[in-house]
Amino acid sequence: MKKLLGILIFSFIFFSALNISRASEGTFDIRSTDSNEYKCFAASLQMQNLNYKTIISCRNILFPIDTTIYSYILWANPKDGGAAIKIGSIGLGRGEYAIKPAFTSLFITAEQNPNVKAPTGKIVMKGSIKPITFLEKETTTSEEEGEKIENGGSKTPTPTPSQKTSVRDRLLTGLKRAGLASGLALIAILGLVFVLTRPK
Question: Is 22-131 in CATH node 2.60.40?
Answer without folding.
Answer: yes
